[in-house]
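2024-03-11 09:14:02 DEBUG pipeline.ingest accepted 1 chain
2024-03-11 09:14:02 DEBUG pipeline.ingest length=242
2024-03-11 09:14:03 DEBUG pipeline.predict start
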Amino acid sequence: MADEEKPAPQTPAPPSPSPEELLLGEGKKKRLGPWLATAICGNDITSSCLYVSGIAIFYAGPLAPVALLLAVGVLYLYRRIYTEVVEALPLDGGVYNCLLNCTRKFDASFAACLTLLSYLATAVISAKTAVVFVRLGSLPRLVRAFSYIDRNEASQNVLIIRLYAHDDPAIEEKLEKNLEVIRELSPYMKIEYQARQGKFYPETVEALSHELEVPKNMMFMGSMTEKQTFSVMDLGGVRVIF
C-alpha cells in the first residue's frame, strides 16, 4: 500500500507589528530629539496663537481678552479629545480616524474636508499683506525691517509706502535701487512699492488701513522724530521695528 502523503508542516504566522513599527517602518530611522521636536511643535502652536491674537485684537478691540479667554476655556474642556485626535495624526488622520470610530463614514469624510479648508484658511492668512512706512528708505533700515518680518511674521507680501509732501526724484531713484537689493535678498517675498503725497498722521494710517484692508497691527514703521506731534499709541497698533 502506498504511503499516504503527509501534510506539509504549517509555518507559524509572523507576529503582528507593534504600533511603533507601523509608524516608523521596519528599518530604524533617525528621530528628532525632545528639544528639536518641542521647538517645532512650539513654533507651530505659538505662531498660530500670535497671528490669531492680532486679528482678534483688531476686530474685538478692548473685548479681545474676553474672546481669547473663551477660546482657551473651550480648548481646555476638550483637551482629552484633542490629545487623542492629535496622537492619531501619524497613523490614519486625526479627525478622520476619530470620527470614523464613533460616527458614520460620511461624517468623518465631511470633517476631513473641513480640515483641508482650515489649512487653506491658514494659507490665506499667511498671504496677507504687511505694510512698511518709510521716509528715505535707506538700505540698512530696509534690511532690518525685512529681517524682522521674515523672523516674526507669516506674511509673504510686503507693501512699501512712502508719504511725501514734495516729490524728490533722487530719493525715488535711490529707494528703487535699495528695493532691488531687498528683492534679491528675499526672493520668496512679493515686494511692492507705492509713493503717495501726504503726511504721516494717525488719520492717514486709519484711511490706509481701511483702503488696503490691512489691520494696523500688520503695519510697520521706523522710529519717530521730534517733529511729530503724536505718539505711537495714537497710531492704534502700528509697530516700530527699525
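2024-03-11 09:14:41 DEBUG pipeline.report The chain has two domains: 35-125, 127-240.
2024-03-11 09:14:41 DEBUG pipeline.predict end
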